[in-house]
Design a protein that fits this description.
The protein is about 45% helix and about 10% strand. It has about 200 residues and is α/β, with parallel strands linked by helices. Helix 1 packs across helix 2. The structure holds zinc ion.
Length: about 200
């Protein structure tokens, strides 16, 4: 029971693969595109085609960009000697939104996972060890999951003897968070990460 012509259905199917869009929202999005052809659909299609051709991974940090060296790696002001290690480009973007970190990044492209058979060679770990030789500090900003923490410990071990300082993000009470709502693990981590005031 096709409600739309076949190629429009195909477009809906493709859109429904996007995160946060199920079949129903994909249908609504496509309908909006069709109604706003000139203002939205044509520029969107052109930009998508253009980016699809030019997108590439930064050769140094693994960030997604449209040049061989991403804007962060080519900005001399960010040569602070600090490298922030993140699991994914989404985490890099999250760190950049925080606007607190002024150094450069290293995107691993995942975490070590025994379950999914992801070993060090599947990640950009050898490149990190290489870059760490030129750095003063490697900051591990990995997710507070079992795989994230396993990876953090693996990296700390791999960097032993390179002379670089290895740190990790503090875990604890989120800004605006109430103690009563935190889980026991977070409260324990916050207590261990306490500092003088
Ligand atoms: Zn880069």
């Amino acid at each position: 029971m096709a409600e739309a012509p076949r190629d429009i259905e195909a477009l809906i199917d493709l859109m429904a693969r996007l995160p946060g869009l199920g079949p129903r929202s994909a249908r609504r999005a496509v309908l909006l595109l069709l109604k706003k052809r000139e203002q939205v659909m044509v520029p969107l299609a052109q930009t998508m085609a253009q980016v699809a051709l030019s997108v590439r991974d930064c050769v140094q940090c693994g960030n997604i960009g449209t040049t061989d060296l991403c804007p962060i790696c080519s900005d001399p002001r960010r040569a602070t000697g600090e490298i922030c290690v993140v699991e994914d480009v989404a985490d890099l973007w999250a760190m950049e939104r925080g606007a607190a970190f002024k150094g450069r990044y290293h995107v691993l492209g995942g975490t070590l996972s025994a379950l999914d058979a992801v070993g060090p060679d599947e990640l950009r770990l050898p490149a990190l060890v290489e870059r760490a030789r030129e750095a003063t500090e490697v900051i591990l900003a990995l997710n507070a999951t079992v795989d994230g923490q396993t990876t953090a410990h693996y990296i700390a071990d791999a960097l032993t003897g390179t002379g670089v300082t290895v740190t990790m993000l503090a875990q604890g009470v989120p800004i605006g968070g109430e103690l009563d709502y935190l889980d026991d693990g977070t409260i324990g981590a916050a207590l261990r990460a306490r500092r003088p005031m």
